[in-house]
Amino acid sequence: MQSHEQLQTVARETLRKNDRGGYTLPTQGLYPFQWNWDAGITALGWMTFDPARAWREYETLFSGQWGPDHFGGANDGFLAQITFHQDSDTYFPGPDQWGTDSLAIRTSSISQPPLHATMLRWMWKEAVRTSERDKTLAPQRDMAEACLQELLPKVIAHHRWWYRCRDPQGTGLVVNIHPWETGMDNSPAWDDPQSAVLPTQRPYVRKDLNHVDASMRPPKIFYDRMVSLMDFNSACGFDPKRIFAECPYRVNDIGIISILQRSSIDLVALCQEFGLQDAAKEMQQHVDRTQVAVESLWSERWQQYVSRNARTGALLDVPTSAGLMAAYAGFQKDCADTVDSWLDETLYGIPSTRSTYIGFEPLRYWRGPIWQHINMLIAMGLADRGHVELADRIRVDSETLLRQQGFHEYYDPTDGRGLGGGEFSWTAATYLYWIKPNASR
Ligand code: DGY
Is 5 considered catalytic here? Predict the structure, then answer.
């Protein structure tokens, strides 16, 4: 097992190795571009040893944001799941597949969980703390302030995009229109809604299986449907009204809803601090609406929040870790007892799907393995809500796992084996930002 100092060095080297000068690959080969929510978590890691590089990650990410001049302007504020700063032939579907060739910086046409206001607030707090601890580091605070002044209007536009385009009726619960938007691609929670999507008939070549064993990746039928949804989007000219009305897949994902809720709460705080009072009020209204609406997603059976098929109205009563981010999101019920039970059922931390659920698969992408950044968000939310011991239990599990296995994409919750891509940026970042030197001692 590696010492903390050794592992910290490896974590920093992992980020440097995946650095492409302004953005960080999640991992080489398997994910050769800038991913949306990966960038936010990864920036936290950079923040611990190279703050300028952390803010740069964000500037680069938002350089791909769609504005009023893109595709008729209806998607102003949209931030893509993937930004293609350079070409690569190791990934499908790459830059030429999404119908966005007219953009100066090509992107995919779907988004990802909007955790950015939270990450930016944590980075801001880190900069303030650092400069208070050591007055000679005051320039770090100035840099953070200048970057936030640039970034905040873009983040506000992004939140407006979510509420305007993905909740046009103002229900308080945004939808997603592609499982990849959830970042939890083939979670068993999507099995029912994605069965309504006609698989594509067009030929394509997957690249992920060149990097990772098929037992750890989604099956072909899943990809056929993902390609079909991607093509539907471009066939609609990315018109959000048409997509909302006609997309064969429309889901209220509790993961996106929780992450957006927490981000809007943090955005309110940042806007207040930076003198953007109108935006603060506007975001607070969204927060209040969601706070009430989310109670319709409570599962009595699993004692946690779950997702809903927004096309049929049916609750997707599947226990996934997305529904345990309740304390993080500030929802009425914090799910602490449920988290406690989950932890008793497996060896290391919180799996992506509850291990007692029939659809649990410990090796396969989002159907069972543990993701460290989700564990971090759940634990940090629980700690904020006063469940300090429970939060620490999750962190210590993660520390054990990372010390034994290094920085993988995900881990088998039954034996701790590292799975998926190796040298993974956001896993290294969670070690640097969350687990930290001496934190468990
Ligand atoms: C993939 O290609 O597996 C990604 O998760 C999509 O974002």
Answer: no
In this predicted structure, the answer to whether residue 438 has a pLDDT above a threshold of 70 is no
Buried-state track 285-310, b at ≥16 Cβ within 10 A, e below 16: ebbebbbebbeebbbeebebbbbbbb
Angle, helices 51-62 vs 116-133, to 10°: value is: 160
- Is pTM beyond 0.85? Reply is yes
Ligand 1 pocket, mutate which of 30, 37, 180 (most atoms under 8 A from CB): 180
Mean of pLDDT over the chain: 97
Q: Which atom of ligand 1 sits closest to the CA of residue 92?
A: 2
How distant, in Å, are the alpha carbons of 182, 217, 410 from that of 379?
20, 27, 17
Whole-angstrom CA distances from 432 to 45, 63, 134, 256, 257 are 5, 26, 20, 25, 27
Check if the beta carbon of residue 248 is closer than 8 Å to that of residue 196: yes
The answer on pLDDT for 1 being more than 90 is no
Mean pLDDT of 191-217: 96
**Helix axes of 36-47 and 4-18: crossing angle, nearest 10 degrees:** 130
pLDDT digits (tens, 9 = 90+) for 81-124: 999 999 999 999 999 999 999 999 999 999 999 999 999 999 99
User: 19 catalytic, yes or no?
Assistant: no
